[in-house]
Amino acid sequence: MNISWLEWKNTPWGKATQAQWRYALRNAIAMCLALGVAFLLDLDAPYWAMTSAAVVSFPTIGGVISKSIGRILGSLLGALASMLIAGTCLNDPWLFTFAIAGWLSLCTYVSNHYQNNVSYAFALAGYTAAIITFSLTDSTDSLQVFNTTQARVCEVVTGIICGAVMMMILPSTSDGSTLLDSLKKIHNRLLEHAESLWQAEITPQVRTSHEGIISQILTMNVLRIQAVWSHYRLRRRNNILNYMLHQQLRLTSVISGIRRLMINWPDRPENLSEVLHRLLAELGKPDTNKYRLANILQEIYPADKSDFRHHTVWLRLRHFCWLYLQSSRWLLRLEASAPDSDLQPPKVKSIAQHTDSIEAAYNALRTFLCIVIGCAYWINTQWDAGASALTLTAISCVLYSATVSPINSVMTLIKAIVLLSIVCYMVKFGLMIQINDFWVFCAFLLPVLLTMQMLKLQHPRYASLWGQLIVFMGSFLTITNPPDYDFSSYINDDFGKLAGVILAGAAFQILRPSSDKVKSRRIIRALRRDFMGQLSQKPSQTESYFESMVYHRISQLTQSKDEQVRIWVLRWGVVLLNCSHVVWQLREWEIRSDPLVVVREVCIRCLKGIMTEKGVQQRSLEVALEELLKMSTVLSRHHDASARELAGLIWRLYCSLSQLQQASSGMPGTLSEQTKPV
Known about the structure:
The protein is 74% helix and 0% strand.
């Protein structure tokens, strides 16, 4: 018989690295400490403190701080709402039903509109109110409402404080070093990305590579927010971090734009590939400078002044080199700067984030109907476990409404509930009922939590399931003060929790989230609407803000399994982004003669003529492309250097728009809207 799995090196404890031991110990001790402090404070439901400590467990200091603040604010807001609803509506069951359903739907809508702490705070405010008010349905005393509310808030704050104390005792890796390392990796990967995109071949890997680099840069924005919360030095450097992210997005756009130029450049120099390889290799060296880069660039400098294609590509390559070199220097200054040094990069707005208001309202409606149906059943049947069922329904509807696959999340929660019901039943009525000393119980609980935390880290595939087991363990053990061992009530509550999650799953199955195709139509229409705003004389969005908004919209569907949807959202985003950069350069272009000004205005009007918020007119697109190519060819023979520069800008616009010609054989369902005026 093979018993090698019993060897120390094959156990979760033997497999764990030093960082995993630190993380597991910190969180397991924090949960036990929160439970003990809640008993010392004589709180009636100490398991909520344990749950709160589990929820705020995060691998970085900034993550713990930001999540703790969101949890405290959300708990306070939810507590105020629960006091208002319970204090005024409990005498009328139907008034109470619509009040709590309205509050939960409002929190769902707001949480779907934001990311990070704001989203988490409003989601927590929603189901905190549900937890408190559903447990008070049999109460007639307003003082009991207040006591229960303040007890829940105290338990939440206790768990958060215990988690923060353990983070100080067993701190994790610095958020600042993690962020800087990630910035360097993305910065170096941009060179690899450029090398893959500037090849002549068109492969599926090009699209996935572009989507990947966009997602990584936007993920860096989350790390930036966490890092800002963790240390005052990083808060002082927030402007530089934000500027660096915008620079990396701009480099991504420049790489994509150069690719479009190379695809439409028929007579490329024979040594172009070799020069590009050397150029990217030189950029990767830490001691590179403009002189060495210029020596490489001069090898492909256009000899013919009228060759506007060659000249435009050369200028864009030079622009990429200078931009990348500037970003490298800011990275070095950021890493080497003293805490009190004053670094002032160009001012830019924060990374833009996209919000789908229609989907948020739809999710809010689903939450409202689900709670009303559940409460109606509870009122008519007077089910004893109605409070437990509706609490889990509220948590599932609010939390999972913004996830990519809510059905999968609900199924994971159902598995966790079934496992916890069985295991916690044996622990509660087989072990806990025989224990009178809290520290004896902690001696059992601590190694269990420690092992579960390690299994969560060592098995990423089942990390979400282990996370649910850890968070909901306290609720199923129902560690109360004084202890309660009512067998029938315990079984009924477990069935109620399972029924509540099943109700939420049925709601997600009947009122399904919008399909990826429907979402892509809304995203593409929003992209076109924002782009039309870029064509106005005074755009409401700056160039960098529009750029980050486009990339954020593209990232919304990177996890979609519909390849055509991802292709078209990415294609529209890249096309409109490249066009917007040309438009901004046309505005900044130095004016030397009135006829050339007229040509510039014609180009901008051309964009307005072929594109609207509802789609692109294919016939107008073909005419416009022919006109743009003709104008760039004529201007390239002009004696004035500014005219030849304008020819290059017009050709860039032509290269960007030519990608839309592929729409004639594209995605069914969405294509008709995209290529024909509606």
